Amino acid sequence: MDKNISLIKKYWLYSKERFPILPVLLYSGAVFYAACFFVSFFGQPSFSFIQTLPGWATLFLVTLHLRLLDEHKDYEKDLKAHPDRLLSKGIISLKELRILFWIVLGIEILINAFWGISRIAFWGALFLWSLLMFKEFFIGKFLEKRIGLYLFSHQILVIFLGFYALSFFMDFNLFNPKIFPFSLLYLFGIMCFTMTYEIARKTWSHDREHEFADSYTKSWGIPGTFIITQIIALAAGGIFYYFLIAAGVSLVSLFIIGGSYFLFLLTEILFVIKPTLKNSKTLEISSMLFVLASLISSAVTFYNHSSF
User: What domains can be seen in the chain, in order of their start residue?
Assistant: First the structure.
């Protein structure tokens, strides 16, 4: 491919390869609104849906700046592990990705500065955690040998994202002792959903493994990965079931979460029995459906449950 193409085209090609816009919009929106609309559990008053759009935009941009930081953090390793990528082939450079990072960061700051000091404070907390992730908490060698701890430490960002979303209608009232423990538990549930997908998308068949692979099946084996994934998925579903039942919602959302979980369970059992490339890809898709169905149905349920 010609390296002498416009910067805009380079960014477009990069997004197609490493940051598909529509799926990330859906994913970031599901996480944001699953957290944001949880305020109805505490009987929050009505609001304008338009008011939430800057938050969704921020989470989308945060997801992008995380990807750009990862490109810098993993550059040397990816040159060997993924020589076919645009960055590895020199079609786009780290310098050009840094330009995009600073643009994205500037937009994030502008969006949140407009909404006041509390929004900047919550955004600042999640941004600082993303920088710690970039530095691998200054214990990269230690975490590299403990893939489970590595995953958990990085997924904590989801809780920061959730508090940011909740802050749109609660500000610092989030830290009220009557609210904070329930919010933290619910956001931990969202984190368990995102962990489920993260593990499932790196549950690989033997032909996908290689020397530089960072798959969970390489570290835990296929049976071990199955057990850990199912424990986390059940924890996620259980937490959501608790809050949805406590809120006295209809059975529809419970059915959606339960049904999508059993589909995910079946595809993972199929992969354990027959660990092929096709079943690995099917498992990744079913895990995403489970996560999105659960987050979106919860967001819709809490939205309808409120006085919005």
Answer: 8-36+47-145 (1.10.357), 176-308 (1.20.120)
